[in-house]
């Protein structure tokens, strides 16, 4: 099809009714994709196309992300192999390396504050918001009844309504009455569960207070579901006092400067999000919670803290919200996620959350140690060079050879890779 003859509108009515192949054809015609690109989009993956089509709207294809296993992890006295889904090189190696260096001193110790989620209901136009607040608090028993009636299964598994909080929020748009229902969602991440309750409750709150209900949704600042991990790295194992002190200085930098803290916490999330994704959980929910929690004092800070023990060793702690589940969402229906959860051998969402916190701390140790010593690039170099070789068209054994040449020449870019490939193929 010539450029001009292509259908150029994004107004496609009934796109959702088409099959995945038909959607690929429409998108391909729109963008002028060639046959190879069409075939790539239609290629099968380890998730059944029929299932994928039911998970999201307008599904055309799936995108595979490599999953690796982090080794050497010992969490609460148990050895675990941790699946991590990531497109970024060095992330999994860093976790395995960091965990090896604290394995003999006991690995990671974790705990969790609970598995409670918060849903918010916003009321506007309450004439007397402070009176309205008390009226809602007086209805605690009825609110508990309504919430629990929404989800008998959750109650059967030991979850359900736990607490009620009501605040009056003064905003430029006037006073708002904000109700929090706090619900133990046990092994579910719980968004759907608490959203259902909030929607069911909202008209009652409006009726009791004479106000108007607007938003009814969970908060991703899941600070009733905070997971913690700690570990100690012997000073001698990590390379001595100079390395230890450089890492402490790196931490202080992060904790006092949001520009550094953003990257420090991004490193933590390299580990956290990779396990969250591998287990079919909601990466955005966990990330939103983590960053909001990092800013809970009014200043964006490090999610971890690093200190020197009385014995002179390096000890690290981490604390962040971890709304992950083992039932519901994609966790239960994505067959690959289920198989990866099976590798972890966890029985509860709390066990999963605790392992994820340990991975976040291990990742943070690895990134800080690299940054405070040789810099991040040396560790990244080998895999990065291989990726560049791939991008330049190297195949099979050429990839390793091109990567070696690029590293030797200290010139890792696609142009250099193209030249090296031409040399190699030309027999030089
Ligand atoms: P869900 O509703 O599919 O499953 C949870 C339900 O499973 C519970 O309500 C309960 O009835 C049942 N259940 C069975 N065994 C259980 C057990 N042992 N413990 C607890 N419950 C058990 O899923 P969900 O966890 O309520 O919601 C998660 C989904 O919501 C995710 O896919 C997420 O992406 C999505 N979501 C997120 C947001 C957000 O984060 N802002 C908003 C909307 C939706």
Automatic annotation (TrEMBL):
Entry GO MF terms: hydroxymethylglutaryl-CoA reductase (NADH) activity; hydroxymethylglutaryl-CoA reductase (NADPH) activity
Highest rank taxon of the organism: Bacteria
Methyltransferase listed as a keyword: no
EC number(s) reported in the record: 1.1.1.88
CDD domains, alphabetized: HMG-CoA_reductase_classII (cd00644)
Coiled coil: none
Keywords: NAD, Oxidoreductase
Similarity section: Belongs to the HMG-CoA reductase family.
Swiss-Prot/TrEMBL catalytic activity: (R)-mevalonate + 2 NAD(+) + CoA = (3S)-3-hydroxy-3-methylglutaryl-CoA + 2 NADH + 2 H(+)
Biological processes annotated in GO: coenzyme A metabolic process
Gene3D superfamilies, per the entry: 1.10.8.660, 3-hydroxy-3-methylglutaryl-coenzyme A Reductase, Chain A, domain 2
Pathway: Metabolic intermediate metabolism; (R)-mevalonate degradation; (S)-3-hydroxy-3-methylglutaryl-CoA from (R)-mevalonate: step 1/1
PANTHER family associated with the record: 3-HYDROXY-3-METHYLGLUTARYL-COENZYME A REDUCTASE
Keyword Oxidoreductase: yes
Bilayer-spanning residue ranges: none
InterPro entries per record: HMG_CoA_Rdtase (IPR002202), HMG_CoA_Rdtase_bac-typ (IPR004553), HMG_CoA_Rdtase_cat_sf (IPR023074), HMG_CoA_Rdtase_CS (IPR023076), HMG_CoA_Rdtase_NAD(P)-bd_sf (IPR009023), HMG_CoA_Rdtase_sub-bd_dom_sf (IPR009029)
Name by which UniProt lists this protein: 3-hydroxy-3-methylglutaryl coenzyme A reductase
